[in-house]
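Predict the holo structure. Ligand: nicotinamide-adenine-dinucleotide.
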Amino acid sequence: MKDLHLDGNWSESSDGTRSDVLNPFNAEVLCTVAVASPDDVATAVTAARRAFDGGPWRRTSAAERGRILRHVAELLVRDRDELARTESLDTGKTFAEGRIDVDDVTAVFRYYAGLADADAGRVVDAGSGTVVSRIVHEPVGVCALIAPWNYPLLQMSWKVAPALAAGNTLVLKPSEVTPLTTIKLVALLEEAGVPPGVVNLLLGPGQVGAAMTGHPGVDLISFTGGLATGEKIMAAAAKGVRRVALELGGKNPNVVFDDADFDTALDYALAAAFVHSGQVCSAGSRLIVQDGIHDRFVAELAARADRIRLGNGLDPETETGPLVSAEHRAKVERHIADAPAAGAVLRAGGSRPDDPSLRDGFFLRPTVFSECTADMAIVREEVFGPVVTVERFRTETEAVALANDTDYGLAGAVWTSDASRAQRVAGALRHGTVWINDYHPYLPQAEWGGFGKSGIGRELGPSGLDEYRETKHVYHNIAPAPQHWFKG
Ligand code: NAD
């Protein structure tokens, strides 16, 4: 099957290499896909370069680019269920979650369609009636866009929609573990009228990504994934001083005060930790609970975690699916195995489910550890699985100190019925998103990104478009005359 997209053509890998895509529910091979060769990487970047330098795309009016993005949104609506089903098969997430992802992606394309021609720059007062001074925006150039496996369609779309709105040309690489919806997205972009060469698709593992980021024809790298990979990508971007945006991991505090609505906070704490089996960059994997409710909160959390229904993402009864791969589950299991020695107390889960119907999939039971402290590895490191740790606090000052005691800074939440305290704590948290009496919502209009080691730059919102634009000052002297700086 031809599933690379190079210079407007669906292509095999030039060396014929293919790899299996597995269904994490049962480890069966769903299909095979091409693995891009170094030659394919060069072909993709060269095509994107040619399409940028000489092609029509960057001279297309911003309104026309917006129209095409709006068309993409319509096609996403048309293919919603097929995309959701594919995402479920590929990642293990539930079909319902897959639909939510497609709806969110549709909203993101609509948002950037609207923003494409909303801002033509600005006129600056140059202090002279004979000068026209303008600030204009231009595309950056060839963008290498690299995405992870947990939200394949969504994370790629957060990059593709603004990058196209701004007039760039692209080389995409989804995760080798979950490539399928990105292949479909590229087909939809083509159907919507994006010209040949503007969007190129590579598939394959980290080496393919490294070849992309190392290619001198790339002007901008936008990456979502793990911290260790992010550091390599930043180093690659340094060569040639290319722009870089990094959306990395998180270890996100979910702070619950005694005066919060207990049942609501508990309900959201479960979803924050265990939706998509915790494989969410903003997962509320670090619960910080006030003394007065702590013991009851932990007991009820553990009881409810035990009742979460695991299963096939396509089964409507399933509440959460498997982990994405055997390798990833093994990594999460290592974290779980090491935690008790540091003093964490296992309150729920901690093992694979007994259910024989889940035996072949990469399942792990929702896991709760209590008596955790901020110095434990299970509290500091991103586990990226169905594992939540609980820490106890007494005062507001202590809660803020704990919530900020992390290398990351992606997102956090505070639960309280005291509005003043909610605002005080939100103001004090060093995290890119803070939810008050909620968890997980994000908006296409609102910037998303991390403080600290959670990344550099922002996606979504107006800043998400700025990542893909150069800013130019055009200064026009409309009445030029000699200025006689030098007299001779
Ligand atoms: P990963 O870093 O292993 O891989 C991400 C992508 O980078 C994949 O496409 C991979 O093939 C590619 N890659 C690997 N090595 C590379 C290299 N040397 N050069 C270029 N590309 C390379 O991450 P993952 O395991 O796929 O995803 C999970 C991580 O993503 C978690 O840490 C999670 O927190 C993070 N994430 C962050 C956000 C966010 O918005 N901040 C969103 C989703 C996921």
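The two ends are 73 Å apart (CA to CA). The longest strand covers residues 131-139.
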